[in-house]
Write a structure and sequence with these properties.
globular, 7-stranded mixed β-sheet, 4-stranded antiparallel β-sheet
Length: 127
């Protein structure tokens, strides 16, 4: 069982930066692939970024490519999302997710692929 706790959200002006953290409890988090999703009010949850179990291979949504960076610190059992050049349309609740990866290099972009979810952290970007 893995529990995920997000932090780092807040209010920022357009063009600013935030770094989200997703701290995982439980052992062997290095065996899990992870991802970030977001959901704005009245909209469906959408994929943001994913990182593989090993080798830190990454995949990004087109809307954030070049602005966001996902990374992980195995020793700290934590996955990060560095968000730069934020836009008002990035405003949403950001959720961290994890799945025990059978593959060392796969990333997962579908929410249904994930088994564990955090509660989310709110990011609001003002214009």
């Amino acid at each position: 069982q893995v529990q995920l706790v997000e932090s780092g959200g807040g209010l920022v002006e357009a063009g600013g930066s935030l770094r989200l953290s997703c701290a995982a409890s439980g052992r062997m988090f290095s065996s899990y692939a992870a991802g970030w999703f977001r959901q704005a009010p009245g909209k469906e949850r959408e994929f943001v970024a994913a990182i593989s179990r090993s080798l830190s291979l990454t995949t990004y949504a087109e809307s954030v490519k070049g602005r966001f960076t996902i990374s992980r610190d195995v020793a700290k059992n934590t996955v990060y999302l560095q968000m730069n050049s934020l836009k008002p349309e990035d405003t949403a609740a950001y959720l961290c997710a994890a799945v025990k990866g059978l593959s060392y290099t796969s990333t997962y972009v579908q929410g249904d692929d994930y088994d564990y979810w955090g509660q989310g952290t709110q990011v609001t970007v003002s214009s």
